[in-house]
Design goal:
By secondary structure, this protein is of the alpha/beta class. Strand 6, helix 6 and strand 7 form a beta-alpha-beta unit. The two termini are 34 Å apart.
């Protein structure tokens, strides 16, 4: 895309934004700060225990790659697509530079002179990003420094960075803290502890977690830390049987795509804490990352990761796209074979489909929900035939990726009669199947096996009215 075309697109976007400026934007923090729910499974707002469903995107290089106009364009589009959390790298290197050529830090981590009068520097640009996100009702999940930089860090530098960030952003309503950054937790844990504790000493409001290495969960190292509010795992980016030389597996062979298993691993720890998949396999990234000729993950893959994780018990989910996470554009040498400009990647199908998961989960009583695989009668399937069930007291949801027929125990929820629907996660549409008796019932999808025709079975106590029988799509929820 030529520069003038990009500029014209942003001008049209600005005009459209002004035309719709009167529409109120939902600010989730109007319900108070985020906290852990009383049952230790979810994140809620402190006012009224209002549930918060985290629908995130991995926008790692946002502070480095986008200018002011692009920040405005990107974050507005994110809001319109239903995203409410942006995971960013505050520092990707030592030093880190932004698109304007300004450095964020030096090797000594002396932040006493980071801002100069009259200079729109690195941190002023990050302030702008946080403020634009706030106007759009979006949280910024700040990964303080990427884990690859740990060898250049010590406890003093970690504490200095934590203190600086906490003092700068403690009063912003839309901050979430990420410690670590794609790294095993046993790599200099004293540095991560120092950084986290320096933040928490100053900022006692915003929640915090640790972003770990692929195929691991933060619960393995930090579940007992006083600064850890919720756990995060990274399930991406390997396919079944693909080790690629990894020698640090914490999972069994041939389970690489079973991200639901990390939920179970995390909940086994004491004390139990909420958990989320903070980095599943990205849309349009090569399976295994490093072979650019390998098949690429598609929209139905990212849907599977999302529904498996949330139905297993996660309090939300983070999507990722190969081009968006690095803000690919013409003239850049992309990582992991990325070639598509980031603004074109935002048109890919999986990107637009994540909001339906949020709408679905917020349609039903949220805080009582648990993952319950006993809903699936008989033996569950393996790999792509694995079905994942979640339920409340009077509703149940079962995600079926492959289309294999399944026996569902409708007695697991209240009610002698159940209203039943199929839900299509690719477009949010509903198909009412009718009122059924409360018993074990066989359900078969009307479609080809393993052809991207994944569905969610919804069953609700017939005395409840969470869904209209005549509804053709899931209702929108903030």
């Amino acid at each position: 895309m030529k520069l003038r075309t990009i500029t014209a697109a942003f001008m049209l976007f600005a005009a459209g934004t002004m035309a719709h400026a009167a529409k109120p934007i939902y600010k989730p923090w109007s319900n108070g700060a985020l906290k852990v729910s009383d049952n230790q499974r979810y994140i809620v707002h402190e006012k009224g225990n209002v549930p918060f469903f985290w629908l995130g995107n991995t926008a790692w290089l946002l502070p480095e790659r986008l200018d002011r106009d692009e920040v405005e364009y990107y974050l507005t589009k994110e809001r319109e697509a239903g995203y409410n959390v942006e995971q960013i790298q505050v520092l990707n290197g030592i030093p880190t530079f932004n698109i304007y050529g300004h450095a964020a830090n030096n090797a000594e981590f002396d932040f006493s002179k980071v801002s100069q009068p009259g200079v729109y520097g690195y941190w002023e640009h990050l302030d702008y990003i946080v403020d634009v996100a706030e106007r759009n009702g979006i949280y910024i999940a700040m990964d303080c420094i990427w884990g690859s930089q740990i060898n250049a860090m010590d406890e003093k530098k970690g504490a200095a960075l934590g203190k600086f960030l906490a003092e700068r952003y403690k009063n912003k309503p839309n901050i979430i803290w990420l410690i670590g950054g794609d790294i095993m937790g046993d790599k200099k844990p004293e540095v991560w502890d120092a950084m986290a504790r320096a933040i928490k000493k100053i900022d006692k409001v915003h929640i915090m977690t640790f972003h770990p290495r692929g195929r691991t969960t933060s619960a393995r190292w930090f579940n007992d830390r006083e600064w850890m509010d919720f756990n995060m795992f990274q399930s991406g980016h390997r396919r079944y049987g693909q080790r690629n030389g990894d020698g640090d597996y914490t999972i069994k062979d041939n389970t690489e795509e079973d991200n639901w298993a990390y939920v179970d691993m995390s909940f086994e720890k004491s004390p139990m804490k909420p958990v989320i998949d903070g980095e599943p396999s990205y849309e349009d990234i090569p399976q295994g990352l490093h072979d650019f000729d390998a098949p690429r993950w598609q929209d139905y893959d990212v849907r599977r990761y999302a529904y498996w994780a949330v139905f297993a018990g996660c309090f939300g989910h983070t999507y990722g796209h190969n081009s968006i996470m690095q803000f690919m554009r013409p003239g850049l040498l992309g990582s992991f074979g990325a070639e598509k400009p980031w603004w074109e990647a935002m048109k890919d199908p999986g990107y637009a489909q994540m909001k339906y998961l949020k709408y679905l989960m917020l349609t039903f009583p949220y805080l009582e929900r648990i993952g319950d695989q006993s809903v699936i009668a008989g033996k569950n399937g393996e790999r792509y035939d694995r079905m994942i069930a979640t339920r409340g007291n009077d509703y149940l949801l079962v995600y079926n990726y492959s289309g294999k027929p399944m026996d569902i125990d409708l007695t697991k929820i209240s009610g002698a009669k159940k209203n039943v629907w199929w839900f299509n996660p690719s477009d949010g549409t509903l198909s009412y199947l009718g009122e059924m008796d409360s018993k074990v019932t066989n359900f078969a999808l009307d479609g080809a096996y393993m052809r991207g025709g994944d569905r969610v079975l919804i069953a609700v106590d017939a005395s409840k009215n969470y869904l209209d029988k005549n509804a053709t799509c899931i209702p929108e929820k903030d």
